[in-house]
């Protein structure tokens, strides 16, 4: 099983089943002279990078995580899609990417 699938299963377990807190920021573990070491990152931003086929089991798990984010007051749907993720979506779904981003 690929590592990213295992990671998603861990995320699902911790967030959906164990109700891990998702509203607080995290920070860079290591700063190699690039970027602000105090820059805040939020789990929802990672979730926005997960791109799966809409009818897949992984997408279903992701949407369960999105529901838990909402329960904790974090609006996944209002979170901006980063540039590289959007470019990847446009490549993967060139004819339907605009519809896709409304559902992923």
From TrEMBL:
Listed name of the protein: Uncharacterized protein
Top-level taxon: Bacteria
Organism listed in the record: Anaerovirgula multivorans
């Amino acid at each position: 099983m690929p590592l990213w699938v295992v990671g998603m299963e861990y995320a699902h377990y911790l967030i959906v089943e164990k109700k891990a807190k998702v509203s607080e920021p995290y920070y860079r573990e290591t700063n190699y002279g690039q970027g602000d070491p105090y820059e805040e990152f939020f789990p929802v931003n990672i979730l926005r990078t997960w791109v799966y086929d809409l009818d897949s089991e992984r997408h279903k798990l992701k949407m369960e995580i999105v529901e838990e984010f909402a329960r904790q007051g974090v609006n996944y749907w209002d979170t901006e899609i980063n540039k590289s993720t959007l470019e990847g979506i446009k490549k993967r779904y060139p004819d339907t990417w605009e519809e896709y981003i409304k559902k992923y």
